[in-house]
Fold these 3 entries.
Entry 1:
Amino acid sequence: MKWRTWDELREELDARIGLTPEQAEHDLRELEAYYNGYRLAELRKKVGLTQTELAERMGIGQPRVSAIERGDIESHTVATLRSYVEALGGTIQLSAHFDGEDTDLDVGLLFPKNAA
């Protein structure tokens, strides 16, 4: 029996089901977005707000809050996430990482509140 590396095994399995690296990357992004949406929904529930109440605080419609919480990638802009988090009473931080160096970015200047 020939032993294979994890990468070789993964490539073989991906080929069997017809999964391209691009599709795998897309699927991973969707899964991460879904997970982030789920976490946001849990935070909203912990604060004790309904989607409608949160939408009113954000100045958007309830369907948009629902889309964010479902992980709709199109709804995940930094400005929208900032509005969501701030409506729950939190703050959002944004950092850029370059070769081991972190730079904090001013979310307020880059993404004004009215951009949600």
Entry 2:
Amino acid sequence: MPRSTSPGDTCGVPEDPLRHAGAAPSRHPAVRHHDRLPLPQGTAGLTVRVRREDSYRVHVVPGPAAALRTLRGELAGRRAALITDPVVHRLHGAPLAAALREHGLLAGVTTIAPGERGKQFGTGGRLLDWLAGVGLTRRDVLIALGGGALVDTVGWVAGAYMRGVPYINVPTTLLGQVDAGIGGKVAVNHSSAKNLIGAFYQPHAVISCLAYLDTLDARQLRAGLAEVVKKAVIASPELFAFLEERAEEVLAGTGPHRETVVRAAGAVKSELIARDPYERDLRRPLNFGHTLGHAVETATGHGPVLHGEAVAFGMAAAVRIARAREVLAAGTADRVTGLLGRLGLPVRLPELAVVPEVPRVLAALEKVRQIRDGSLRFVLPEELGTTVIVDDVTEEEILRALDHAGPAGPAPAAGGVPCSAGG
């Protein structure tokens, strides 16, 4: 079997004569590997056994000083390349970069366009060029300082650069702290579909600074809360009840309620991700609201409708489908859509910032169906904490869910035509 030894453990092998010949000391001391592998026998194919464990800390800290201390601890003396956007750089990036520079830890800092405008394949290529230009090595670290779209982009770049360098997420939006920053799903958009170009690449650490949330406008906070509601519906009735009781206070930032939300939603995401970190099972409760939500984002051009807003609409539509199928009680359906409405989130098409054309939404769903092995899955709630994932939603059901004129009517008759968008 292979064996690794440190320079102090020679295992009977003479010491390197260069150690006593005046040679300059190496930055990385030599490590010897001793192998005695036999020739393979027979004609059978080979099996490559790979074990991989990705675990990391999600830190929730009160303010920038604590964030810097935590970041320095995670860097452990390694250089960092900081990637942010112009707005976040002005608010948080410049002082963070100055502090890292003061401690000799900053390799460079650059910015990309904010939001979905920066989450593009071309952005990734420019960032790779920049990293090569500043001489980042595999020992160094990327820091993603920004919202959900930015941490998605930087995570994808980190996985591509030199076949993978560590990266630390420092999300500055509520959506980033409770969802996008955790889980290692990294991607950039393609003109035909959201997140079409991506991978699974876990961060080295996540540092969520609660004070950063104070700089968000109400729309961004609401969009982040959509992902909190999602987690509450699929996995935590207790969190749902907390949101019902404290919704306005969470939005206003009064008391310790935002910290409660960030920690609780992060814990739900961490638990569900740990069960299936690479989405081997495509039937995932975490996709609640995302089937139609992603289609809305694609149909509106990736940007005018915030991700959380699209997910909120997608959840409301899924609730209408579940209610029409009589798998969800009317009272629970009203609680979910009622909470979304109290938080100022869209539950019907006219409430979106840009109202997509229905044919464009159906075309986007067709693209999703092609990506997801020929089927289009909807996560439908049965009760708080219980979901069912189905792949037989008909086009009629989708059109009813998209219809903003009134609540969903009775379920379509059995034998309806399957959705042309793969539904």
Entry 3:
Amino acid sequence: QDAMAIVRRFGKPDLFITMTCNPNWKEIVENLLPGQTPADRPDLVARVFKMKKDHLIDLITKQGYFGKCKAHVYTIEFQKRGLPHAHILVTLEGDYKMRTAEVIDRYISAQLPDPELYPRLHELVVKHMIHGPCGPRCEKDGKCSKHFPHDFQEETTLDEDGYPSYARPNNGITVTKSSGFVVDNRYVVPHCPNLLLEFNCHINVEVVSSIKAVKYLYKYIFKGHDSAAMKIVDGAVVYDECESFLDSRYMGAAEACWRILGYELH
């Protein structure tokens, strides 16, 4: 309900963006000591990701990359392997809302670029924006929880459930991974090509086109920290909120450095 108060004040969000740290960013790699890996320098990972996250939010909110920004909210989370990522919800002013497929296609792509025309973009899409092959990490009851592979689709359409179906034409452009897995447009995660070129990391950009998706998205980005404990006494689950926060907390080195440095988590 607190999240919906934001919606009542500023309107529903228009974009949902997820940005994940790339441990091979040159700002990280070039500052490692001989023999070190990014995993040895969680402080460096935290500082560089904050710099990149701030730059992304500045592009959106101050420089108006998607148009005039009315409001935004974000949260920082940390994967089990320690890498930080940001979930960002963006609300645009009325004239800049993405109400048509043509406007959506201007900013968001779910396709493999032509490797001859756009070699760098093609390289980054293959490196950062491919889902698959599916396995235990994403499958539930034998099906991908992220709904990959999607169906081929010649043009972008807006669905009733609040999520657009992005254009994924069967244009013959494919990539074969070293494992033998063949990638085509059905496996491409929606992204903004210019932001992918700018940040060189996984940066998923999706349109929020219905109020139905809003509660889910706010719940998703504020779902809380990872935990890994449960206590059962005499057949009943015993839950102490304070004890749970202190004792069952899963915190990696990058998150610890993030907090020590005093960086905001939302």
